[in-house]
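pasting for the record
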Amino acid sequence: MDELIPLNQANLPRMPEGVAVPRYDRARLTRGIVHIGLGNFHRAHQAWYLHRLMQQGLGHDWAIVGAGVRPSDSVMRDKLQAQDWLTTLIELDPAGKSAEISGSMIDFVPVAPDNGPLIDAMADPAIRIVAMTVTEGGYFLDPATGGFDAGHPDIVHDAANPDRPRTAFGAMIAALKRRREAGAGPFTGMSCDNLQGNGKILRQTILSLARMSDPDLADWIDANCTFPNSMVDCIVPATGPKEIALVQSFGIDDKAPVTHENFRQWVIEDRFCAGRPEWDRAGVTFSDEVHAYERMKIRILNGGHQVIADPAEILGIETIAGAMAHPRIRRLLHKVVLDEIAPHVAPVPGMTPQSYLELVDRRFSNTEIGDTTRRVAFDGSSRHPGFLVPSIRDGLKAGTPVEGLALVSALWARYCTGIREDGSKVEPNDPNWDKLQAIAIEARERPLAWLEQRHIYGDLASADRFADAFARWLPMIHDKGVEASLNAYLAG
């Protein structure tokens, strides 16, 4: 292999032939967006849409300033700073891989315990949008009710110390307070996480926290800021040695490359109190029907990921494409979605739930992606209540089947025992792993112990049709194994 070219601004003209690079003058870009939670997904999705807009000569006053609130975010900041905030994006298309370098990010604020630099950045009048990808479990929600969890220790701290907040939400409130005092005006808060009504949830978190310390400020935020709902979609694997080797195969030395599938979608409500980039020129859909797109994606794609990841993990299947190559797991996905999820999902323009399942099947089966079942199974304590429990409740209410969803919940409980069928150990894979594992072991003898986790299942332990099915499936999985249990469901 020829000598690798380090990724940085000075080396852009030297990049290998066929690697697309920014055509715009990055030195002339000015900040307009702060994005909190600058992981792989953001760089492959939202930052890419802005990059593509900039390639058209537009949006140059909307450059991204990255941010994080966890000490580990400093590691990403250091990597990106060393390469002038550039990222190599590698598209994993079965027809052939391609690479481009995205340059829409121009800074990353230092990470500090009191979030002072982040507050300073968001208080800058040039910032008109504050966006975030902080995971589904990062919004301080009570999983049983969907309401704001005012008793969380970090929320209690931020309410008592609004000038030294621990959370991204506390930092946003502190910045908005400065902007109000300086007459700088509001900014739009934009969630890009996989939550039904993510803008509404972000608004709830911000206003609820603000009211705990400054009700007048909360009223000002309510009256002036906007929080558009959005739906985001792109499969983006984690970066590891394989991805590093892949970017090097293109001749580029990038310490933080991102791989992604050959599909993206972004649907947003057009509610921006301080303006927005012309993202529609780069392929974004602006719509008042975001909820319909959200429901289809969250219920079928995100829910479908959970349907296949846990049985695959128990069987030692490492990738999502590998799970789809297992005929019973693939049939499980189709049967659960068609019989138990799709009946509660409305069509969107140009797409029925059934045709969306076929699209999801093709995307999950992309062998170039290498997305791991472990990554998809991570944080089931947030993903199951967010992606699957709503379909269970809809099925119980409508009288439609819930047998498959009960089986999927039982497979998750079996996974959380921490031992695969071949005897290998599952390393902790949830922020609440120790507690989940203890309950999963208890549930082997008393299955309803699993459903009695009210923060996940609410009152479903007393919903006989679902609870009885779960109590049949879990012992079968333990006694006869995953394959036999899948056969029993598929034969029903």
